[in-house]
Amino acid sequence: xxxxxxxxxxxxxxxxxxxxxxxxxxxxxxxxxxxxxxxxxxxxxxxxxxxxxxxxxxxxxxxxxxxxxxxxxxxxxxxxxxxxxxxxxxxxxxxxxxxxxxxxxxxxxxxxxxxxxxxxxxxxxxxxxxxxxxxxxxxxxxxxxxxxxxxxxxxxxxxxxxxxxxxxxxxxxxxxxxxxx
Length: 181
Hints:
Helices cover 31% and strands 27% of the residues. By secondary structure, it is α+β, with helices and mostly antiparallel strands. Helix 1 crosses helix 2. It is elongated and about 55 Å long. It starts with a helix and ends in an 11-residue tail after the last helix. 32% of the residues are buried.
């Protein structure tokens, strides 16, 4: 039920994500809509729903790690000449990485965050299948870029050092280097 609710939210929000595209771009094209929906589901943290837009891949890159982001933008769709492929560039403002550790080993505060601010640029390659349905090509990206507002449960389970690092990352500061003594 939650996945359906997130998918419905993604369908409603997707047109707004494409608003970052230039006015000359066809924000109503199937490629633009599919890319926007993928990014919406990705940033909502619904990997399962985002994966339904990616052409069947054999690999499952999931390792439980998420990449908290503070902002995302999509560039205008660019058709590749002489092909049916369209490229959509996505920019994620990444705060760092978060991952779970074994709760049986480290205790109830088992999520860890490491600040690593950067811009992740992902190029989604989209093409229609024989029925006209638009797909994202395998290997374009893995859906792990989750908006900071969507990782509340993980934040509740972070240790104090991770929480401190996350707070610094949110305001754009780097954590102090550990003493080398």
